[in-house]
Specification:
The complex is a heterodimer of chains A (218) and B (252).
Chain A lengths: L3 E10 L2 E11 L4 E5 L6 H8 L7 E6 L2 E2 L5 H7 E4 L10 H10 L7 H10 L16 H13 L5 E5 L7 H16 L3 E5 L3 H6 L3 E6 L2 E7 L2
Parallel strand pairs in A: 3-8, 3-9, 6-7, 7-8
Antiparallel strand pairs in A: 1-2, 1-4, 4-5, 9-10
Helix pairs in contact in A: 3-5
Chain B lengths: L7 H7 L1 H12 L5 H28 L2 H22 L6 H22 L7 H32 L1 H9 L4 H25 L8 H8 L4 H30 L12
The chains are: A alpha/beta (218), B mainly alpha (252).
Chain lengths: 218, 252
């Protein structure tokens, strides 16, 4: 069954049309790179997928049912979104990690936390660090770890490596590739053409709020 | 308590103090002469009117009428507070309920503890103090809520996208707004007697009450202002944060 399906989806905001008649199908386990110029509607596409905004036209189906009719909290637990600029909250890295467990009324799974830290090449000492002293790359990796504490069905990445150096970018790329190997569907918005083609199975290009092309890469 | 027997003559002479303000405005070209005169005339007319109304109500000594007047005061305060928070959904209703509950609980404790009696000459001035304090606190809460939901939009959306409900996603903003509403009352309590002798205490002392007794009233006032501000700010923030989300739990 198609996992996410856009049926003639449009989105406009303050009388400005951002996405127009988008129709795409994403299968479970797909790895889709989304490319296009700034302001073409890529981030809006991701926010629509995870129920943070509602389409102004058309329908989005998730596992065959209308996404907007499903419980937004449950949808967001299954379709996780990682922002371009990571927003860490609270005072320490630990606050960001414990939040996901607290909202599920669960104790922190230390083993899971440790395995994610090592997957993103970070020491567990970071847990006690103040968020103010972290670099952009560290913040983004913490944000990714925070998103992945509970394995999502779909992972939406919004230019998450745009502020990272080459080493950190490679760490993130490898971690995401591994996740995709474990069955997680990936939608990755990127500006980097090389990154867009390197790992993905499909390349979706958006221009002026419309699909320009959908290319099969593998 | 006859020390403050101000005669009409003394008041008329004291009115020359307004001239000081007018002369400043005129020579410094502040262009405030017209507004000064209007404000002074308004103040005098409003105070004369309210003194007759209070004299009448105190004479009636009817608990129902007293309650009605307190409700009218609450409505006026709610109306003013809601104007400070135009982005707050149902601002007037939220303000009215919050101020009414805050003032209601505080007045009930005061009456049941025997600190004051449910008589118009005690209930109305006390209500005036707590309701106006709650009004200012709510105005601050609303402004903080609106500005935080704008400036911390990414934080709220990040928490939503992690699968949090709207309350855990907004809790930091709610707490910050309640704090903003309460801080002026807490700060003014800290400086009582050091920086300021509040109006009520000054009034009692001028009217001849011993400072030793006047402070008892002031302590009572401080307690009741804190309780009303806390309850009203808490209620207003918790009642209004939902208005920043749509029914699909998306930030508007």
């Amino acid at each position: 069954m198609t996992q996410i399906e856009f049926q003639d989806v449009s989105y406009s905001n303050d009388e400005k049309s951002i996405l127009k008649d988008i129709s795409i199908s994403i299968e479970p386990g797909d790895y889709v790179s989304v490319m296009g110029p700034s302001g073409s509607g890529k981030s809006t596409l991701l926010k629509l997928c995870c129920h943070l905004i509602s389409p102004t036209g058309g329908r989005i189906l998730f596992n065959g049912d209308d996404l907007m009719q499903q419980d937004p909290i449950e949808v967001r637990k299954k379709i996780s979104y990682c922002f371009q600029t990571p927003t860490l909250f609270g005072e320490t890295v630990e606050d960001n990690i414990s939040f996901s467990y607290a909202i599920r009324k669960q104790n922190v799974d230390r083993e899971r936390v440790h395995s994610l830290f090592s997957r993103f090449n970070m020491s567990q000492d970071y847990l006690g660090h103040k968020i103010q002293g972290l670099s952009g790359g560290e913040k983004q990796r913490i944000a990714l770890i925070r998103t992945l504490l509970f394995m999502p069905d779909v992972l939406l990445l919004d230019e998450v490596t745009s502020a990272l150096d080459a080493d950190n970018t490679l760490i993130v790329e490898k971690a995401i590739e591994a996740l995709n190997g474990e069955g997680v569907t990936i939608l990755w918005v990127t500006h980097n053409p090389e990154q867009g083609r390197k790992y993905a199975g499909k390349l979706l290009t958006i221009e002026d709020g419309q699909i320009n092309s959908l290319e099969e890469l593998k | 308590m006859n020390n403050a027997n101000i005669s009409i003559g003394s008041l008329l002479i004291a009115s020359s103090l307004v001239m000081v303000s007018l002369l400043f405005s005129y020579f410094q070209k502040l262009k405030l002469e017209k507004e000064t005169i209007i404000s002074v005339v308004r103040a005098v007319i409003q105070l004369i009117a309210v003194s007759y109304i209070l004299e009448y109500i105190f004479g009636l000594n009817n608990p129902l009428f007293t309650t009605l007047l307190v409700l009218i005061m609450t409505f006026n305060a709610a109306y003013n507070a809601s104007k400070r928070g135009k982005e707050i959904k149902n601002g007037l209703l939220v303000s009215f309920v919050s101020i009414a509950v805050g003032a209601g609980i505080t007045l009930s404790i005061l009456v049941f503890s025997g600190a004051i009696k449910y008589q118009p000459n005690q209930i109305i001035p006390v209500s005036g103090m707590i309701i106006s304090n709650a009004m200012v606190a709510l105005g601050l809460c609303f402004r903080q809520l609106s500005s935080d939901f704008k400036s911390r939009r990414d934080e709220v959306e990040t928490k939503l996208s992690l699968g949090a409900d709207i309350l855990p996603s907004s809790i930091e903003i709610i707490r910050n707004s309640i704090r903003t509403g309460m801080i002026p009352t807490i700060d003014s309590a800290k400086t009582l007697g050091i920086v300021s002798l509040p109006g009520m205490m000054t009034g009692l002392i001028l009217a001849g009450t011993s400072p030793l007794l006047a402070i008892r009233y002031q302590i009572l006032v401080t307690f009741m202002l804190m309780s009303t501000t806390a309850i009203s700010s808490f209620m207003a923030c918790y009642l209004s944060y939902r208005g920043f989300f749509n029914k699909r739990k998306q930030l508007q």
